[in-house]
Amino acid sequence: MIPAELLTARLRLRPAEPGDLADLHAVFRDARAMRYWSTPPHADLEQTRDVLDRMIAAPPGESRDFVIERQGRVIGKAGCYRLPEIGYILHPDAWGQGLATEALTAVIAHLFAAFPIATLTADVDPRNAASLALLARLGFGETHRARRTWLVGEAWCDSVYLALDRPPGDGSASR
């Protein structure tokens, strides 16, 4: 059975809802949060509505993306918009408190338990040292790099590709 939400000590991770638009827009319009994202900051609410609508409509067998809620307010999102690639973003007001680690630890355990995947992957801008360090702490290792993979606005960005294998002894990959 697929849990409707994941709970950690400080966070509630749950499926996105239409009412999350304003809080998600606060994340996606913030230039600091979007510095290493695959698109420029959202200029208007409609851009964020499109992201939210796609999160809500994503097929559950191919996607498991959660909004991150703290103290009743959505502060970001984490999960796989398309399996097996994991991604996350938090509002800068939530940075430096261990919340991304807390959220991703719960999401990673959930993804390996819920899906027969052998490996999770991530694509990170090589300038994003904080994200690379976080993923390394969670066990992700670099597999390769590529140049000019994302055109964000008018600037080409590079990618560092990372992978995290299913923990040894976890036989659920054969489900």
Mean pLDDT: 94
Overall morphology: globular
- Rounded Rg: 16 Å
In sequence order, what are the helices and strands, one letter per element? EEHHEEEHEHEE
**Architecture, CATH level 2?**
3-Layer(aba) Sandwich
CATH topology: Aminopeptidase
Strand content: 25-35%
Contiguous uncertain segments of 5+ residues:
none
What does this protein look like?
The chain has 175 residues and is an alpha+beta fold. It has a single domain, classed as Aminopeptidase. Helices cover 26% and strands 33% of the residues. A hairpin with a 2-residue loop joins β4 and β5 (85-90). α1 (21-28) packs across α2 (45-57). The chain is globular.
Q: Summary?
A:
The chain is α+β, with helices and mostly antiparallel strands and 175 residues long. It is built from four helices and eight strands; from the N terminus they run E-E-H-H-E-E-E-H-E-H-E-E.
